[in-house]
Amino acid sequence: MARIEGPKFPGPFIVDLTPEQAHLVDLAPNAMQGARGVQPNIEGVLEELAAAIPKYANDLEIHPDIYPRIVESTAAIPELASKVKKLEKLLEVAKESLVRLVNNREEDISDIGARAADKGTRGKKSELLAHFEQTIKYRSQIAEKAAKTRKKNAAAEGNAGEGEP
Question: Model-level pTM?
Answer without folding.
Answer: 0.74
